[in-house]
Design a protein that fits this description.
Length: about 260
């Protein structure tokens, strides 16, 4: 079967894509669109800040429904390749999603705020003695134990981060009995354990992916990772979580606003 192609009667923006779909391929339409747009960005044929076409433009040009185009836009947005503001046309992004540290939001809250679909898979959940760094971060006394929760975080079905949360066992007794894949951890803190969150302290660094990191995050060994170490406090200024997040460096970048004070 011959490939579908953007018609010459469509807008210049669509023509510029030179987009075709291989109808005989086992690769879904949305993935073919994503792969093509990503390639154009990598080759600098689509530049950051450039206005992009709408879902309707592409679906009409290719004579397909909006559903696969919408899926493609969601994935491109998750990868930071598209920036979509309400009521405005899409804009080509840098390929990295800025993570804003000015607001205390959980991973799920932040992704939903951007119109993306977050999910999680629990990799491990154990109770034990904390490492020195964790004990200091949580201000634990000698002999106190912690829950160590390790989760793989997804955005629109794509693995983007491994988050290890260290939680004082005396505060979160029985947390292992809760569904930590379907529930936001911050919601569990506030709604189940009645710990109102107030502020967090972050340290941002970089690392390279080990073989295990690369396997879990579906990236290459040695690829860059953004490392975020965060201590979260409740309204009584009690540290209740010490987390270490490894985010794919090709998907995320840190965004911090600094204000000069006189």
């Amino acid at each position: 079967m011959s490939p579908a192609r953007a018609s010459s009667s469509s807008s210049f923006a669509v023509d510029k894509l030179d987009l075709t779909l291989n109808m005989a391929s086992f690769t879904p339409y949305y993935q073919q669109i994503v792969d093509h747009v990503r390639s154009l960005v990598e080759k600098n044929k689509l530049k950051e800040g450039e206005t992009f076409c709408s879902e309707g433009d592409i679906s009409r040009a290719l004579n397909i429904s909006k559903m696969p185009v919408r899926q493609a836009f969601q994935k491109l947005r998750a990868e930071g390749l598209l920036v979509i503001a309400k009521g405005k046309r899409p804009v080509i992004g840098s390929g990295r999603v800025p993570w804003n540290f000015q607001q205390l939001r959980g991973f799920s809250e932040e992704m939903r705020r951007r119109g993306l679909v977050p999910s999680a898979r629990v990799l491990s959940l154990d109770v034990g003695e904390p490492e020195v760094e964790v004990a200091q971060g949580l201000k634990l006394t000698i002999g106190e134990k912690i829950y160590c929760l390790r989760r793989l975080r997804f955005v629109n079905g794509e693995p983007v981060a491994v988050v290890t949360s260290h939680l004082p066992a005396r505060i979160f007794a029985g947390i292992d009995k809760h569904d930590l894949e379907r529930q936001s951890l911050y919601q569990v803190f506030e709604q189940i354990y009645k710990r109102k969150l107030h502020w967090a302290e972050e340290r941002i660094g970089a690392a390279t992916a080990t073989e295990e990191d690369a396997r879990i995050l579906q990236t290459k060994v040695g690829s860059p990772l953004l490392v975020i170490k965060e201590t979260t406090y409740d309204v009584q200024s009690i540290p209740i979580e010490y987390s270490v997040s490894l985010l794919r460096g090709d998907r995320y970048t840190a965004s911090v606003i600094s204000v000069r004070r006189n």
